[in-house]
Every structure is written in structure tokens, then in C-alpha cells.
Amino acid sequence: MLVERLRLGPLETNCFLISDEVGGPVLVIDPGGDADRLKEAIAGRHVQAVVLTHAHFDHLGAAESLAREGIEILAHELDAERVLTPAAHGTGGAIFGFDDHVPSGVDRLLSDGETFTVGTLAVEVIHTPGHTQGGICLLVSEPGTATKHLFSGDTLFAGSVGRTDMPGGDARALSQAIATRLAPLEPDTIVHPGHGPDTTISREQRINPFWPRA
Q: Which among 76, 64, 61 has a CA at the least distance from the CA of 30?
């Protein structure tokens, strides 16, 4: 499995390009901005789709540019409407002086437990509301190994969690999502957050002050 990270947009959001090691298609996760840089990184490769882990402006700034090239935009059904406007109840960009949104909308809605493939990779959608109502994580399995990768968006960071004071945020829902959806994952699951460095489930269980405790 190949995991490429680009820090894009005004908040240096982690945009991930994932693919298998046999020349399969690329999945783009959270194209936060800097469309020209992103297009340069994917030039000459087949992009299967773009997945938005949630609808905040700093995770989708380059999505409309990719949509105009015929690339499908995927997001959870509860966040799909939010991408249409930069208002507070939408991507939230207007709150901070940004206009980032996806006027062409989401092409395919994702739901909890749904699975799809990217080349030889298996991808599972995990609904983790709290940062936004339609926030998701993607759990990706490497073929032939026990290694799993969690692309956690703004649900879980190294040593922290996503903010819940924006419209649609819910601190209790976020804590419950981590406790019921992420805590049961294998401890050595590699976590690729939407901002900051990678971590693992076991590390967050040990050191994250926001990790739900019994």
C-alpha cells in the first residue's frame, strides 16, 4: 500500500493519496486546497474518486477543481448538503474569510459500514459524528498483511480530537464515536489524521487526554 501525504490549503490539511503497489487507481482523501499542486501530484494517474472525511472548508478546497475534470466526489450523506455553501451551516469557510465549497455537490453518498475497493485495497467507511454530523473515518486494509490504516479526518489527532464548537459539532457524540467505533480497532492500527503527524490507536489509548475512559 502506498500512502502519500500533501499538506494543502490555508490550514495545511493533510491530503492523502492512497493506492496499491501494483499500479492501481488512486483515492484522494481530503483535497484541502492548492489545486495546482494536487493536480501535479496525481498527473498521469487514474484517480478513482475523492473522499471528503467531512464538509469543512479546509478539507475540500480543491474538490470543485477535481470535479470539473470528471472525478467523483464522495461524502457521508449527513454532510453532503453542507459542501454546497461556505456559510456557517455549510463548510464554515465564511466564518474565517474563505469561500471554499463544492457548488457542483457530492456525486455519491457514503453510509456507515459501506465498503469499496481501490485496486487491491479494501476500504471501510466508519461514521464518526461529533466534529460534524457526517464525519467519517476510512479503514483501509493492506492485502496479504494484518496492517490496517485509519484515515481519521478531524475525528482523531495525535494527542487530541477535533473541535466541536462549530455548527453541527457535538462533543458527546464525538466521544461516543471514538469509544464505540475507534477504540475497538486493533492497537497497531496506523492513524493518519487530517492535521498533524501520524499516530496509532495504542498510542492514543495511552496518551490522548480526550480518549474515553471507563
A: 61
